[in-house]
Fold each of these.
Amino acid sequence: MRLQEYQGKELFRRVGIPVVEGKVALTPAEAEEIARELGGSVVIKAQVLVGGRGKAGGIKLAQTPQQARTHAETILAMTIKGERVRKVLVTKAVEIEREFYLSVTVDRAAKKPIMIFSPEGGIDIEELAKTFPEKIIKFHVDPLIGLQAYQVRTALYQAQIEPTLIRPMSEIFFKLYQAFVQYRAQLVEINPLALADGKLIAIDSKFIIDDDDVPTELAGWEEEELAGSAEERAAKQAGLQYVKLDGTIGIIGNGAGLVMATLDVVALKGGRPANFLDIGGGANAEMMKKALEIVLADPNVHGLFINIFGGITRCDEVARGLVAAQRELGIRVPMVVRLTGTNEFEGRQILEAHGITPVTDMEEGAAEIVRQVITNKNTV
Ligand code: GDP
Ligand code: MN
């Protein structure tokens, strides 16, 4: 599993590697607030697992809290190399004098950890390897005896690091190696490790942790990422299982198996599901309403397919929730409802009294919503 920059920096902090002060924001307002707390100019950084954020416009300098807000707004709306930005890290902007590169990874051929250092950090290491291969210093570490002081000294002399930096730089070598071992990493990287105000400080972090050996301390760190969107958190709070997808047809059903089957049938009919949402067994009108609210919050949703198989869940309850949601939320996209099972007759009556005609067949319902969404699009 890969960690986000802010998570990696938290681990750096735990082993004593200095990092730039900062906090994560989920909204532009939060970013503004953090910028105000930090004071001075700040850097707004997209938290995504793909590289090259800077080039993609995912890192911006803000001089004022207001500017932090507008930059956060722009960055939070971005998708970088297919990854939607859900969080930004707001850090104090630092005056960088020099940038170094430092990492530890596994050299599979040698079956040993390898430490890589360069006095020319900041840029991509693969790029650096092509342009200045002589500026990259590498050495293996014996996993049984660990990193040795003479190895670090040799690397630093070889890189012609000035005497005043030898001691603080060595400390960072040891702490990074410790992080590598302690968190069972496959890769830990600081790029850039900056010299700012005479001190060394990590500006960025990269961590890849062995999926088969995740330390208990980091249990749930990946889930936190997956459940990061505002919709997903709202769903969790309401006791609904929601997973955002990238299509245009919002899906609500009861029971994970039924919802998964619904996604398949919609895809089979040529549609693209916008989400997975399971309202669970025994859902009531209130939960149905909440579910609609969450699905409709996604601007990509151009149609809704509600697929309810009444068992413990009663169709009349679901129908009441739908009608209430329609009245309160004003559903503006086409909607197809498939309703069958417990109290089906009562449910149909409620819906029909409000101008909604439910279908009883799932395939027919899926075909119908796909047709309506596509027709709608063609007429726009
Ligand atoms: P990456 O592009 O995803 O690797 O993101 P980084 O966090 O490494 O940032 C990219 C580059 O932005 C760094 O190499 C720095 O040159 C620059 N940068 C990031 N934060 C700061 C900052 O606080 N001050 C200055 N001057 N530059 C920064
Ligand atoms: Mn970087």
Amino acid sequence: MNSDRLRVTPYAPQVGAWIEGIDLAAPIDEAMMKTMRKALADHGVIFFRDQHLSPEQHIAFARRWAPIDINRFFKATDTHPEIAEVRKEPGQKTNIGGGWHTDHSYDLEPAMGSILLAREVPPMGGDTLFASMGAAFEALSPGLQETLRGMRAVHSSRHVFGAQAGYAKLADADGRIGNPDKVLPDVVHPVVLRHPDSGREVLYVNPAFTTRFDGWTERESQGLLQTLYQHAARPEFTCRFTWQEGSIAFWDNRATWHYALNDYHGERRLMHRITVRGSGLEGSHWLSGE
Ligand code: SIN
């Protein structure tokens, strides 16, 4: 049974907070939800320890935030289509999410958040990095900020999840990522978002899914995109989370990037991920004419 002992403690100066004094398997009242919503808005990602939830409890917790947005490319658990597996077996070399990205930015209405629960972790390694896109945007010059506010960018899943792309060509991704036929047309999102909960301006491009600026060619876009990526990944905007079985990281996809480190070859790592729905972003639309 939860009481009123919920505590929020910053984890790193720019991104992340611990949430302690709560059992996510027990009833959670509205006051606790309000505290956690504020912590997520303020810090971009919230971390929990020792939450050994059943799949049903994981799903019930996710539904307290928003309807579930099922990822169409990840293999789900055998029993619960709402839960995506993020798995790497001892014999596999590639991991899932091993580069800076934000989930579902290729969707017209990107998932608001992802709730990742550690089921099995390697004895060492397999940490996840997070980066604050609010801190990154605020550290740019006023001139570049103003330019970016007027820009839009194209996001795509084709080159990552499509039939001719990354995961489809990797023999050892087989069984973990699939459905290349579920790739949808590319979408256009603003480069700078006003975050609906924090009111903060955030940079909304990412190295995995953003392919170019709207109205620019890929070649023309590369220089500025790479400048933004190098800037946004600066260590001072990031934190690094070390998992234990039962740890949860719940990140806001509109405010952060994340990066799953792949430094544990020969060991097993199994995570369960639920993505929850977001509201549409102002000014987003399907890319027309392609
Ligand atoms: C992901 O990119 O969603 C997975 C992150 C992780 O496994 O740490």
Amino acid sequence: MTIAFSSNPLQSPPVPPSGRRRPRLTFIGTGYLGSTYAICYAEMGYEVLGIDVDADKIAKLAGGEVPVHEPGLDELLRKNLAGGRLRFGTDYAEAAAFGDVHFICVGTPQRADGMAADLSYVETAVTMLTPHLRRKALIVGKSTVPVGTAEWVEQLVARHTPPELGIEVAWSPEFLQEGVAVEDVLRPNRVIFGVKTQWARDMLYAAHKGTFDLAATEDREVPVVITDFATAELVKVAANAFLATKISFINAMAEVCEAAGADVTQLARAIGYDSRIGTKFLRAGVGFGGGCLPKDIRAFQARAQELGVGEALRFLHEVDLINQRRRQKVVEIAADMLGRPYGPAGPDLTGIKIAVLGAAFKPNSDDVRDSPALSVVRRLSRAGAEVSVYDPEGMANAERELPEAIYPKTLGDAVTGAELVCVLTAWDEFRYLDPTTLGDVVGARRVIDGMNCLDAPQWVQAGWEYRGMGRAISPLSGMEG
Ligand code: UGA
């Protein structure tokens, strides 16, 4: 069932178990997801408690510092801490005493021993919270999980709480994108309620009412899909699988364009005019990365295999392979531009100084998890190159992840003397670089535009040898439409 909410359709909304007018919310796990939700829901007027086992992270949040780079979040954090609606802590007993609705926002990373998702953080969150519960509450999963997890969480809850408390479970996946997470949480394009009872549905409605009220003031509606647990869980992974497939589709076209001498950026624009296809998520480049799409398509395949329908998702293996090949393609282009032969063990780039602009998996983020940029840096370093990396926000995380690269303080330091510049994250700071000024400090004017985000003719005119991804070699000026 889909309902579009912009005002309260309930005649008599249920009284939250705490007796408050609005349910009190806890967000368990204060990474990107949980911290953004906790802060934004406080901003919408809820009383909120953020919980994490990481005391350092909690101390930072409680002190007004967001532990990740997310535009707009710092300001909202400080405002709502000062307003008294938002608190952070590590004590599950406090969370149980406080909350009516407990949102599970912990990570579900790829397991070290395979493609499946590691559910140990979900299990810990549930088993640490439930023994402290003394009144009815709703436990809501927001983390991305394999289908069937909500049923399992329900069993865990039943094992750890007396039935007379009537603790219920629901699943409501989130769709926030890093870099625009605040906007995505305050103004979701849809909300999913995976529920079994009317009470769970009503409590979820009450817990999301802030987003519906905001929509009403802006003359918008938020579609709500009310469904069962399994569908709610699958909505999330299906959405991410579709997005990953769209990116790999255009990257596969990039491979064909490279072989045929065509230009994938123009191809994407031309097919995107068909509204059935659309232009979004058709940017060819070094492929997708981050803490979500890569591990989600793997976990989805592993789960499908367990369910006996592995064949249905076999194409996701291909999606993954196309994605990995894009990273290697940058190394191939580098070897070609630098005149270093590409042997069976890859090229020998010994003695070559390369500047990589970008470390975060996407702009406006400091997240380097499964970052295509860092994967390319690793490959270039292994081929013998001396790689200097610069990123506006991701330097500390990148250095922790990949200490073998060089991390100069400024962009200028990174590119000085470089024989090749690779732009691998589409930060505005890189997109609008002046190629003439930059040309004066580099060792040689060679650039790989791994995100197809530079103004190619402008770079060519400034004397650069330019190579994009899936684009004809050295596009002529004036060819861009
Ligand atoms: C993704 C989804 O977009 C969110 O809807 C979802 O909630 C989130 O995962 C999650 O599961 O929590 P996110 O990982 O923040 O969000 O990043 P995206 O904006 O989806 O970008 C993922 C990767 O795809 C980036 O490396 C980006 O550079 C790449 N990308 C994106 C392309 O290569 N081409 C495109 O056209 C678009």
Amino acid sequence: MPEFQRPRGTRDFGPEEMAKRRFVESNMRETASTFGFGEVMTPTFESTDLFIARSGEDIVNEMYAFEDKGGRNIALRPELTASVMRFYVNEMQSLPKPVKVFYFGNMFRYERPQAGRYREFFQFGAELIGAPSIEADAEVIALAMQSIKSLGMDDAVVRIGHLSILQSLFEDIGVPENQQVACRRLIDKQDYDGLKNLLAEISIDNSETLIQIIKIKGGKDAIAQAQELTSAGEDGFTYLADLLNRLEAYGFSNCTVDFGVARGLDYYTGMVFEIDAPSLGAEKQICGGGAYKLADLFGGQEVNSTGYAFGFDRIMLALENSGVEVPSQKLDAYILPIGDSARTAATEILMKLRNAGISSDMDLMGRNMSKAMKYANNIGSQKVIIIGQKELDEKSVTVRDMESGEQELVPISKILDYNFK
Ligand code: AMP
């Protein structure tokens, strides 16, 4: 057994996987740019207090938190919304509104690793700050939908809820304010028995309607279905109907509502949404987001914000499961000089190709022809360029197409005219 192992819950990514990840990442960046969002980057670690301010003391148990050599309490970021809002409050408040930003980066959470759940993982997220809420909510959900659409993932399901509906339902049956967060957490975990028990403990036994409503999912008719069961939460229902109409205008008519979307975190205020990739099984949630208020908590002026974070690693898994082709990196040409006399000419051709953007490599191992062919095949090179004495005499190279096996003599002076792509 090797002496050093990766820390639990972390992964190494080889070149082939990295090429795929970078492809998906740049696709998502491009989509965000077409929506007018600009990229931001913040530090990988922040003061622990920032995350405590956002999520409460308990978050410390879920983080990589430590004291640095200067005695400061530091945490590796478990998410990026808090950092972005700190950045906004410190430096972006006076910018014209709305502020539209996106980010990509690694996050750290001290949790029990399993398929699709890691201790170091990646999120691609966006935040829209300072626009009226319904416009911002529609724009942000549309960006999330467009991101997965342009990746070719067509089985993802977006479920949208509104916390004011839950709040009205809580008030309707008399759930005290100090128990509402605990109820939301149970709803978030779909732990309906736990919810019933908690409510029974505080002598609330008329929770049937609440439980019926949080199980409803569907299109516009689901809103009507829920409204038949309760007269509470009218504003929230109207809001969601309006939001679905707006998303339809964006071209996304397949969004659904789900009154059980509660998001575990306390700082969400209105609309909340999640996106699932059904092929992922237990860890199927690929995105979570909603409207929130954090700026004032961080010492800034209160401002509407809506954002989300995609679990990038789960997107990669979902793309693989649904058979979506993600191109991996291919080498255009592999150059094989035969004998030392050919090496200088081979090197010159190598750099000519590289300078022209043709990905190319050259034999560094002194392999003979058959071993070099095997190797070129192994690394997936599209062409092999052979330069021996015969070729040198003719100021040419032999280009072999690895798929068809066809060979062609190409003058060195015309090498860039050859179609390597
Ligand atoms: P959250 O910040 O908890 O709302 O998470 C947003 C998204 O990040 C989730 O929907 C998941 O796709 C992803 N995610 C959260 N935790 C992990 C983890 N430990 N490993 C991999 N992905 C995660």
